[in-house]
Amino acid sequence: MSSPNCGRREAVSDPGTLRGEAAALDAADALRAKRAEFVLDDDTVYLDGNSLGALPRAVPARLADVVGREWGRLRIRSWSESGWWTAPERVGDRVGRLVGAGPGRIVVGDSTSVNVFKAVVAAVRMGEGAGAGGRARDEILVDAGTFPTDGYIAASAARLTGCRIRAVPVGDLAAAAGPRTAVALVNHVDYRTGRLHDLPALTAAVHATGARIVWDLCHSAGALPVGLDAHGVDLAVGCTYKYLNGGPGAPAFLYVRRDLQPRFDSPLPGWNSHADPFGMAPDHTPAGGPQCGRVGTPDILSLLALDAALDVWEDVDLTAVRAKSLALTDFFLRCAEAYVPAGRVVSVTPVAHAERGSQVALKAAPAEAAAGTMAELVRRGVVGDHRPPDLLRFGFTPLYTTFGEVERAARTLGEVLGDVLT
Amino acid sequence: MSSPNCGRREAVSDPGTLRGEAAALDAADALRAKRAEFVLDDDTVYLDGNSLGALPRAVPARLADVVGREWGRLRIRSWSESGWWTAPERVGDRVGRLVGAGPGRIVVGDSTSVNVFKAVVAAVRMGEGAGAGGRARDEILVDAGTFPTDGYIAASAARLTGCRIRAVPVGDLAAAAGPRTAVALVNHVDYRTGRLHDLPALTAAVHATGARIVWDLCHSAGALPVGLDAHGVDLAVGCTYKYLNGGPGAPAFLYVRRDLQPRFDSPLPGWNSHADPFGMAPDHTPAGGPQCGRVGTPDILSLLALDAALDVWEDVDLTAVRAKSLALTDFFLRCAEAYVPAGRVVSVTPVAHAERGSQVALKAAPAEAAAGTMAELVRRGVVGDHRPPDLLRFGFTPLYTTFGEVERAARTLGEVLGDVLT
């Protein structure tokens, strides 16, 4: 491999050495017991938990009970007796602990896209009439490297609220924000490169201009400490099916800072966000708490599957998760450096720990080799994913990925690239 | 009971007669075999399927397979190999058969509220610049008796698109629609009274003014034939957890008439509604088919639970469902007339078949007795629900409700009202 920090092919590529090191790292891993709480098979190295997390063992039995007893036997009574009605906030509080949000800040429900829409429109409305010279803040800034849906939804929010939208590289966002800026929408971790952005600094910089900031935590929630409350973040969204292992398409979450909840003017004021949802009043009076982010009837089966999936986090410290995440990605980069023929891939993931999420993306050369390389990797039991045109993406989930798997993945990648073109 | 068609107390209230009649009706019921496909207990008469449908027996095993094998073993591969990615349209087609929509008109996903938002905003955009004298159509009409969330969401759509909103009783809608009307949002069946509105006539009347119509089918889908394609309906939404038995908070559906799909300009253009969702392009190019109504990643567990729940419909003819539904509500009204002391309740559900959905709502006198009456009914094993201030609501699900249960429910209601105040 050619890496930005090390252009030369590393001399030592003896698998024995790195395998031994992997074994030692696994033996010393403070989180090693967590792997047993997931359904995994030793034939496959699953490095796609940044797309869909593995199944926690607690989920099937819990979901069977939700379906068979709560729905099947109690039926309508479960809305109160089984706590269905309050599940969006209850599960939200559990997610909150993992992203540094105190109780009562988060609701779970809807997709990330829908939550981006609520957050961006609500943020624009918080800034109305508050810009320079009394003019409305009418600009939405969006991370130029954003996952596409955030950009599409932000553009729709701009169109509907009479704002203009401007895509800006994250590095330029602090300078770009100004008195016309209503809100900046930023991805905490870039979904392609795995670059981690500086949430505290960027939040402070955007706040200094009087604007709001919405963070998309899809690729950081459950992978590293976030500190939403501590850094005064206004609004945040994120999905729960990546590092939180909530299941395919599990409901997303929406964070609204406590003091902003009474000012959260939702563009999707469904009956669930009404201050008195069962009053069936003809006009909408917004709920003042985290319920302000709800819309329609919560999707109970998926929500309670997520609830069960969150059990694995009960005894987990995010600091330990972050430490292992960095150790895994460091080790993968070293192994790839050792095993992969020079010139075939180059890492686009930052070397600096402060700028790295929990994935590594390797740019393939030639670009056309990327898809075939990933297909062959999967055939050989190493599951990452391919993001066109030329990225090979590997996600590392500290709760279940072992260093032994990391060594095997890099070694297999080296073998595939050696076989394919040599 | 006092009913609009019959002010006098019926002379015959011999339970033996009505029980015998119930037994004969059950014996002749063409749908009687369907009940065995649901989890029900004979101790409870469940007349709340218009709020949450009972659990179809096929669901638990299917969901266990989706969780254990598709998610647990195949993981990310299931997006293609298990057909997850195309499930919103595939399940949509199955719902389509039940509401008179051909393949490729419906997607399943999001909540009803979110789908109302998409439909109303998209309808307004279809009419832009098309009103009288070249002026924009800038008025949204909404059924004055609507389920509240539809009104809240329509008001939000109006605010965001620069329209005004006007609530009009359904009976006046045809006259109220005019050259400024962009869209009318109407409930097919009133959630309180159970009144069925005339979909073909109202659709034609609104179309005659050049406006669009959005039908909310929450209380009709699975209860009676709808005929969306046949009547040229523009857009429709509905939930799947009432008569379609999809489970608590199961994803809702959105119908977009075939010729309108290329013009469906969604206010929630997520990556799933992109013409090339995996191209990750920075700009949104809308999908031309039913995918135009998708937003974010589909909620697979709930969606496939619904898919399994729809199996019960495979051999069911909606005409038979409608016939039994009317027979059930007719019989309930007769039994209530016979058993309930005069003056204690009056039906607010229309007597005419053409104006009746699949529920009966009884207005209690005095109003304060309603909550206690329903609580006591539930304690005695008859589950309906109470809608404040004074409505006792009973839903009849033709696939599993028996005439014997109807007789028991009315008899128990009579006993409760007799016990409570006599």
Provide the fold topology.
The structure is a homodimer of 422-residue chains.
Chain A (H helix, E strand, L loop, with lengths): L14 H14 L16 E2 L11 H17 L3 H4 L5 H13 L6 E3 L3 H15 L12 E5 L4 H14 L2 E5 L1 H7 L4 E7 L11 H10 L3 E5 L18 E4 L14 E4 L43 H10 L8 H22 L5 E3 L11 E6 L4 H11 L2 E2 L1 E3 L3 E5 L7 H19 L1
Parallel strand pairs in A: 1-11, 3-4, 3-5, 5-6, 6-7
Antiparallel strand pairs in A: 2-8, 7-8, 9-10, 10-13, 12-13
Helix pairs in contact in A: 1-12, 2-9, 4-9, 5-6, 10-12
Features:
7-stranded mixed β-sheet, Aspartate Aminotransferase, domain 2, 2 domains, Aspartate Aminotransferase, domain 1, 4-stranded antiparallel β-sheet, hydrolase (chains A, B), pyridine nucleotide biosynthesis (chains A, B), homodimer, Kynureninase (chains A, B), pyridoxal phosphate (chains A, B), 422 residues, alpha/beta
Give the name of the CATH architecture of the largest domain in chain A: 3-Layer(aba) Sandwich
What is the class of the largest domain in chain A in the CATH system? Answer: Alpha Beta
Mean pLDDT of chain A: 94
Side by side, the strands of the main sheet of chain A go 2-8-7-6-5-3-4
Largest interface: A-B, 77 and 77 residues
Largest sheet of chain A: 7 strands, mixed
In percent terms, what proportion of residues of chain A is strand? 5-15%
Overall shape of chain A = globular
What distance lies between the first and last C-alpha atoms of chain A, to the nearest angstrom? Answer: 15 Å
> Percentage of helical residues of chain A?
25-40%
* Structural classification of chain A: alpha/beta
Radius of gyration over C-alpha positions of chain A, nearest whole angstrom: 22 Å
Can you identify the CATH superfamily of the largest domain in chain A? Type I PLP-dependent aspartate aminotransferase-like (Major domain)
Number of strands of chain A: 13
Give the CATH topology of the largest domain in chain A.
Aspartate Aminotransferase, domain 2
The string of secondary-structure elements of chain A, in order, is HEHHHEHEHEHEHEEEHHEEHEEEH
Tally of distinct domains of chain A: 2
Residue stretches of chain A low in confidence (pLDDT < 50, at least 5 long) are 5-12
